[in-house]
Write a structure and sequence with these properties.
It is a single chain. The chain contains 11 helices and 11 strands. By secondary structure, the protein is of the alpha/beta class. The chain has a 7-stranded parallel sheet with strand order 3-2-1-4-5-6-9, with helices on both faces. A two-stranded parallel ribbon has the order 7-11. Strands 8-10 form a two-stranded antiparallel ribbon. Helix 1 links the parallel strand 1 and strand 2. InterPro entries: Ergot_Alk_Oxidoreductase, NAD(P)-bd_dom_sf, NmrA-like.
Length: 282
């Protein structure tokens, strides 16, 4: 009897990039274990319950797995405390490749996920870190920017006129699949952007044109944004997010890379195309 092929464990399989990555892997015929706190089914994948803070869920999720797509716990300012022991456990159980989702704004060795990034090559010989820019879906899904657009016609940030190479989550997933399944892992970090850098005022203008509803960008100071976010989340995480906006205002995210095209063989998708697909008619 032929042994079952090893599976890819996709953590956060109901989230923005995890759901897309699990679906693409399954559609291509790769065995997938779709991990989420509720063990929610994903088409073509085996649902498994997984909670970063419940070690009893870890070993069952790792059974039969040889590679992982790792999304650290959202909102945790110190994810290495739970993520690194899990990654070492996965390696000891036979997993040989890990692809970590981080962010373009967080360098290797930086805060939060940056510390997991720095440690990853010491755990896995085959690895990659995806560092996408801010998601285009933040303006179309359930993010506070999308809710602000729907409820008030306002995008509120401390980013000023700073520009960002916003990236489509579909493109992030496509790169994740290549990093997980290509014969050779990238063995580096990959900064992912869309094809152009846009300010939040530019985003508001595109949404206005596509939907026919007026949308504007409302700039706040760093301090105002920090206090606004602190009403919704832990103060330390609020300060970090407000600081990321301030970095955008200072030009830290004003860049475009060719990583999506280089890894997938097709150009990265632009924001207008996504807005026309997801917002037209709303």
């Amino acid at each position: 009897m032929t042994a079952a092929a090893p599976a890819t464990l996709v953590i956060g399989a109901t989230g923005t990039t995890g759901s897309r990555t699990a679906a693409l892997l399954a559609a291509a015929g790769h065995p997938v274990k779709a991990a989420s706190r509720g063990g929610v089914p994903v088409a073509g994948a085996e649902p498994v319950r997984f909670d970063w803070y419940d070690p009893d869920t870890h070993d069952p999720a790792l059974d039969g797995v040889d590679r992982l797509y790792v999304i650290p716990p959202v909102g945790d300012p110190d994810p290495e405390a739970v993520v690194l022991p899990f990654l070492r456990r996965a390696r000891a159980r036979g997993a040989r490749r890990a692809v970590l989702l981080s962010a373009s704004s967080i360098p290797e060795g930086g805060p939060a996920t940056g510390r997991v990034h720095a440690a990853l090559p010491g755990v896995f010989d085959e690895w990659a870190v995806l560092r996408p820019s801010w998601f285009m879906q933040n303006f179309t899904g359930d993010h506070m920017h999308a809710r602000g657009i729907r409820d008030d016609g306002v995008i509120v940030t401390a980013a000023g006129d700073g520009r960002v190479g916003f990236v489509d989550a579909d493109d992030i997933a496509a790169v994740a699949v290549r990093a997980l399944t290509d014969p050779h892992a990238p063995g580096t970090d990959l900064v992912l952007t869309g094809p152009e850098a846009l300010s939040h005022a530019d985003i508001a203008a595109v949404v206005t044109e596509v939907t026919g509803r007026p949308v504007r960008h409302r700039p706040l100071s760093y301090e105002e944004m920090r206090e606004r976010l602190a009403r919704l989340m832990p103060a330390e995480f609020a300060a970090m997010l407000a600081g990321m906006d301030r970095a955008i205002a200072e030009g830290a995210e004003d860049r475009v890379t060719d990583t999506v095209e280089r890894l997938t063989g097709r150009p990265a998708r632009g924001f207008r195309a996504l807005a026309e697909r997801e917002l037209a008619g709303r």
